[in-house]
Specification:
The complex is a heterodimer.
Chain A lengths: L1 E2 L1 E9 L4 H14 L3 E8 L7 E9 L9 E7 L2 H4 L7 E11 L16 E7 L1 H9 L5 H13 L3 H12 L3 H19 L8 E2 L8 E4 H12 L3 E4 L6 H10 L6 E4 L3 H13 L4 E5 L1 H16 L4 E7 L16 H6 L8 E3 L4 H18 L2 E7 H4 L2 E4 L1 H6 L14 H4 L26 E3 L13 H21 L3 E4 L6 E5 L4 H13 L4 E6 L1 E3 L3 H8 L4 E6 L5 H9 L5 E6 L8 H12 L1
Parallel strand pairs in A: 1-8, 2-5, 5-6, 6-7, 10-11, 10-12, 12-13, 13-15, 14-15, 19-20, 19-22, 22-23
Antiparallel strand pairs in A: 2-4, 3-4, 3-16, 9-16, 14-21, 18-20
Helix pairs in contact in A: 1-4, 1-5, 3-6, 4-6, 5-6, 7-8, 7-12, 9-10, 17-20
Chain B lengths: L23 H14 L7 E5 L14 E4 L5 H11 L4 E7 H7 L4 H7 L3 E7 L2 E2 L5 E2 L23 H7 L4 E6 L3 H13 L4 E6 L9 H9 E3 L9 H8 L5 E8 L5 H12 L7 H5 L5
Parallel strand pairs in B: 1-2, 1-3, 3-4, 4-8, 7-8, 9-10
Antiparallel strand pairs in B: 5-6, 7-10
The chains are: A alpha/beta, B alpha/beta.
Bound molecules: iron/sulfur cluster.
Iron/sulfur cluster (SF4) binds next to loops of chain B.
Chain lengths: 584, 284
């Protein structure tokens, strides 16, 4: 059976290298112009312990991890058991596993009836005999996948070179492993029905959400980053620590998150675009700086790669439960913008937009990404990534004119609510930026009237942003009576579920805003107009997004919440089931 | 050299909110004086402060200023300095701001040796919140939150700064703004993190006697003191009966900014990249 799409799941113990195998497979596939989507999942250990990944490879555009696994590779059944709940197997699944797994004698934990083929493969033995090193069992595995299912070995060589190209010896060892696996598979009697077929095309880029944000920041002109390590956001800091200096930028690993956000505000005050990145617990610490950035009207971009909360929660898994914190966190009426990427490509676009808004409107912009996007790899067409910037204006902040410098009012009331911002070095532009309530000059004033008008000045920016910024995605027919509303990484499953339902003949549409605050009311109202029912999808136990929508809209249709805690990626089937129910 | 800037040129017309007789007026005058001594163009100076009576100071100076949040003077100052290395950055802080809420930031600014001068106005009391105990207040003192007598042992800012590898440490008092201005000048001239610890009375909550206390408990460092010798600095800092004023310690060490530039250079040793080229790392 020739297929144009495959979902491969792999599990093993730490050191088995299944995640590296996944990386190689995904980048190899991307080099052939294929689309891929790769998730990684780890146990809570620092090193070792179990790990797994799943990769969907397709000739078509894909937006989610795919629900069911076609090919399952298990290097250790004991460790597989820890991820079993995350792996839903397809009827007719093909399983490859290590022959010498003592758990095998107890019978594999996969329903025999749904199993099409079981390959017991002596991974350990092949590696030992043909390569002489136990380290590259995972490359033997890739070689076998090539031999059995029609992946190109040359593509995988590129994948390996991408990962290990810099180290000659490791490279050679891995290639030896790949070849050993390939030869073994060629000599093997193929008894499964799967044959992956495709026509290679121009290579795609492959990157994860954290890389896309880091690159987006650099692209948008960010030249100062301060952060404090936290899972699952640290990769942004690590990437920028490597690349920023090449562009004369600065990366500081601060002593804590308060300091990190403070350093960024300082740099931004001094005229340099600055960003910090963290996860929920860090955002809690940064709350006071959100207020300061808002009050002192200093541009600041904060990335929150959400993880499961509250408190330490589950650091390595995803949830959408920092929404309220991003929207409301900090004391007082502190205006801010909240943006949410919904896939890896969005991570780039949203970050560029975040700088644009933050610089133009002089306020904090929070980017709500999550572990699910941050750590997953997707293929993206290089040209597309660059061309997206057609819609992003590279905005530089407004500086005071010579005329304005004669009597410089840093917080001057203007039509647009945005006052020209001076920075050290500009003669005559001296002022004191303040977190305390102030008049147009920045001088302390505590009267009620002044506070009211200054609040108005700061909040009026929202209306402009609402009007100007319509970063929103819609799927399905315009006039559907059933709608799905989701945000952030839920989009993947939602989009696919809606498109599938459309194919089944169900009239359903979806709305995914990339701007969460301020909400572009008109766009929402347009979407609401034909609705009789809407399903609001989110990974938040307390349905934060639904409550937020209710706080802004009357919602004149039946609302069905499709919410649950995170830790497990949202599946297309979950959403589809809800759509079926609602469409009955 | 023709004098372009007089101390008056750094003064704006905002009236300080400080109580009459507050020691902070002395600090303000010393800041004007120091800036004039160094002939610094006001647009090239940024005074960054936290919160507290002391931290209101930037609002009274015609340079760039930033009156930020309680305890956060150092991270913000660091951001300003790294973003605009040509700016002279002066941190303005109080004992509570620097040694209580903002304490976690101090050792890091010091070990990085960021080129900032921190003026720490120490009066042992929280003036702005009207009279609670501060971390530098001596044991036994009565304040609004220690009505049975302070049972906490105080922090000595200078001893602490020595422990944190602060590369320049000086002490002065509001009784002698001229001396203070000299110390601030030394701090600004020093390439690296410098602390000017200033005993600055709070007449409202510690009373006018605080001036007398300072007069009785301070003494200029002896001529023989060698600030480049860490051991003698320690001895000076640990004198029990009196607090020394003057330049207690100074050490030449790379400052953070020059390390950052060196790092940038190292990273560019293989040539300058363009953003488009950089994106190729995602292609395989
Ligand atoms: S309360 Fe004390 S420190 Fe504050 S202004 Fe008045 S005298 Fe100065």
């Amino acid at each position: 059976m020739q297929v144009e799409e495959l979902v491969i799941g792999m599990a093993g113990k730490g050191g088995d290298g299944v995640v590296t195998a996944g990386d190689v497979l995904a980048s190899g596939a991307a080099s052939e112009g294929l689309n891929c989507f790769m998730l990684k999942s780890f146990g809570p250990q620092i090193r070792g312990g179990e790990s797994s990944c799943r990769i969907r490879i397709s000739t078509e555009q894909i937006t989610s991890q795919g629900d069911r696994i076609d090919i399952l590779v298990v290097l250790s059944w004991e460790d597989y058991a820890k991820f079993a709940a995350e792996f839903v197997l397809k009827d007719g699944v093909v399983v490859l596993c290590e022959e010498k797994d003592e758990y095998l004698t107890k019978g594999i934990p996969v329903d025999e009836r749904s199993l099409s083929t079981l390959y017991r493969i002596p991974f350990i033995q092949i590696t030992k005999e043909k390569v002489g090193s136990q380290l590259v069992k995972n490359m033997v595995l890739i070689g076998i996948l090539c031999g059995l299912f029609g992946f190109s070995k040359e593509a995988m060589v590129r994948g390996i070179a991408k990962k290990f190209g810099r180290k000659k010896e490791t490279m050679e060892l891995n290639l030896k492993g790949l070849n050993a696996g390939y030869e073994y598979a060629v000599g093997l009697k193929k008894t499964d029905p799967i044959e992956f077929s495709y026509v290679p095309s121009r290579p795609n880029m492959i990157l994860d959400g954290n890389e896309a944000i880091a690159y987006g920041a650099l692209y948008a002109g960010c030249r100062f980053f301060a952060g404090y390590p936290i899972t699952p956001a640290s990769e942004i800091m690590e990437w920028l620590s490597r690349e920023l200096p090449k562009f004369d930028g600065v990366m500081v690993q601060a002593e804590d998150e308060i300091a990190a956000a403070g350093m960024c505000i300082g740099a931004s005050f001094a005229g340099v675009k600055a960003m910090t990145a963290t996860s929920g617990p860090g955002l809690s610490l940064m709350s006071e700086m959100i207020g300061l950035s808002s009050m002192a009207e200093i541009p600041l971009v904060i990335v929150d790669v959400q993880r499961v909360g509250p408190a330490t929660g589950i650091p390595t898994k995803s949830e959408q439960s920092d929404l309220q914190q991003a929207l409301y966190g900090t004391h007082g009426d502190a205006n801010r913008v909240v943006l949410a990427p919904s896939d890896v490509e969005d991570c780039f676009d949203v970050t560029v937009e975040a700088f644009y808004i933050s610089e133009k409107y002089q306020l904090p912009v929070i980017i709500l990404s999550d572990q699910f996007i941050g750590h997953r790899k997707e293929s993206i067409k290089m040209v597309e990534l660059m061309e997206h910037n057609g819609f992003t204006k590279r905005f530089e902040r407004i500086h005071p004119s010579i005329e304005e410098l004669k009597d410089y009012k840093r917080y001057r009331f203007t039509e647009a609510g945005v006052s020209p911002m001076s920075s050290p070095g500009i003669k005559g532009g001296q002022y004191t930026a303040v977190g305390i309530e102030h008049d147009e000059y920045g001088c302390v004033v505590s009267t009620a009237d002044n506070h009211e008008s200054m609040n108005k000045k700061r909040f009026d920016k929202c209306h402009r942003i609402r009007e100007e910024f319509h970063f929103i995605r819609k799927y399905g027919p315009e006039d559907a009576p059933l709608g799905v509303i989701a945000w952030g990484s839920s989009k993947g499953a939602v989009k696919e579920a809606v498109l599938r339902a459309n194919e089944e003949g169900i009239k359903v549409s979806a709305l995914v805003p990339q701007i969460i605050h301020p909400l572009p009311f008109k766009k929402f109202e347009e979407f609401f107009r034909p609705l009789k029912k809407a399903i609001i999808v989110e990974l938040s136990y307390s349905a934060q997004f639904l409550k937020y929508l209710r706080s802004h809209f009357h919602l004149p249709f039946e609302q069905i919440t499709c919410k649950r805690s995170g830790a497990k990626a949202l599946s297309v089937e979950e959403v589809l089931t809800q759509i079926h129910k609602a469409a009955e | 050299m023709t004098v372009q800037y007089s101390p008056l040129d750094y003064r704006n017309d905002v009236k300080p909110v400080w109580c009459v007789g507050c020691g902070h007026f002395g600090v303000l005058n010393a800041v004007y004086q120091a800036l004039a001594t160094l002939q610094l163009p006001p647009e090239n100076v940024a005074l960054v402060s936290g919160i507290g009576c002391s931290s209101r100071l930037p609002g009274y100076v015609r340079t760039y200023g930033f009156n930020a949040l309680h305890g956060r003077v150092l991270p913000i100052a660091l951001g300003v300095k790294l973003a605009r290395p040509e700016t002279v950055v002066i941190g303005i802080t109080g004992d509570g701001d620097a040694l209580s809420i903002g304490m976690g930031h101090y050792p890091h600014a010091a070990r990085r040796n960021i080129d900032i001068t921190l003026i720490m106005m120490d009066n042992g009391i929280y003036g702005l919140t009207k009279g609670q105990v501060s971390p530098t207040l001596t044991e036994g003192e009565i304040t609004k939150t220690t009505i049975y007598g302070n049972i906490d042992h105080p922090i000595d800012a200078v001893r602490f700064a020595l422990g944190c590898q602060t590369s320049l440490i000086a002490r002065s008092t509001s009784l002698d703004p001229k001396h203070m201005a000299e110390m601030i000048v030394r701090g600004i001239k020093h390439r690296g993190f410098s602390l000017v610890h200033v005993l600055s009375p709070c007449v409202t909550f510690r009373g006018r006697e605080q001036y007398n206390w300072i007069r009785e408990h301070t003494e200029p460092l002896p001529e023989s003191h060698n600030p480049e010798d860490f051991r003698s600095a320690l001895d000076a800092a640990y004198r029990e009966d009196k607090l020394y004023t003057g330049l207690i310690y100074q050490e030449e060490r790379d400052d953070y900014g020059s390390r950052v530039s060196a790092l940038c250079e190292r990273s560019q040793s293989k040539g300058i990249l363009t953003l488009e080229e950089l994106a190729r790392q995602f292609l395989i």
